[in-house]
Specification:
The chain is of the alpha+beta class and about 220 residues long. It contains four helices and nine strands; from the N terminus they run βαββββαβββαβα. The longest helix is centred in the last third of the chain and has 23 residues, at about 195-219. InterPro entries: Mediator_Med20.
């Protein structure tokens, strides 16, 4: 599977995320000859246990994330961050969980936007919105380098591409920047060869950072 980085928009102190920034980012992709391929969507659910008997509390994770990815429509990914666990399941697991009633989805977020092809790269730029809402909570950008599945071998090319991207975007004088978070995938038992589980872990961390950023701006 091609290596993918997931970046998120970090607003400057005192500024907020808006759909205008998303529009500027997509225009920027087109200005560097990105070819629009269509729409994409991913979802993230934050689950909490429904404990009928409090004595079993220690046996259940306090919370975990469930993620569906645009390029893996038949799969669903669970991340238990506290225990550094990532699991792949069939997408039907969501229905099973609803019926079992052992965990409840407390927060559901959608990532949606456009997909572009740019040489050997595929870019996805999209907004983060809660279910049943149009309020933009964040902006994410996936950068996929199609020829290589080794994270180490692709690192230099990815960094060079992001330099070009940041330079192109800086001309628009936007109040913030796209940030890539470096991760130790070994903690989750993942190796150098890129898999969808790597992407799921990236989204989990991006989400944690975005929530922290929102809280810091409000605070």
């Amino acid at each position: 599977m091609p290596v993918k980085w997931v970046l998120h928009w970090q607003p400057n102190q005192g500024s907020t995320v808006s759909s205008q920034i998303l529009n500027e980012a997509t225009q920027c992709v087109e200005s560097i000859n990105g070819v629009k391929e269509g729409r994409w969507k991913a979802t993230l659910n934050y689950y909490k246990p429904l404990l009928r008997d409090q004595t079993n509390q220690a046996e259940f994770p306090r919370d975990f994330l469930g993620i569906s990815l645009a390029d893996q429509p038949n799969k669903y990914y669970f991340i238990i961050r506290s225990q550094r666990i990532v699991l792949e399941a069939d997408s039907s697991i969501q229905l099973i969980m609803e019926r079992l009633q052992s965990y409840k989805s407390k927060v559901a977020l959608y990532f949606e936007g456009f997909q572009y092809q740019l040489g050997d790269f595929r870019l996805r730029v999209g907004k983060v919105v809660p279910t049943h809402s149009e309020n933009v909570r964040g902006i994410v950008m996936e950068v996929e380098y199609l020829p290589i599945s080794s994270m180490e071998k692709s690192r230099k090319v990815m960094e060079e591409f992001l330099e070009i991207w940041h330079e192109a975007l800086s001309k628009r004088s936007l109040p913030g920047k796209f940030v890539n978070i470096d991760l130790n995938f070994g903690e989750f038992g993942l190796g150098d060869n890129y898999t969808p589980q790597h992407t799921a872990v990236r989204y989990a961390l991006v989400m944690a950072h975005m929530i922290a950023t929102v809280q810091a701006v409000r605070g």
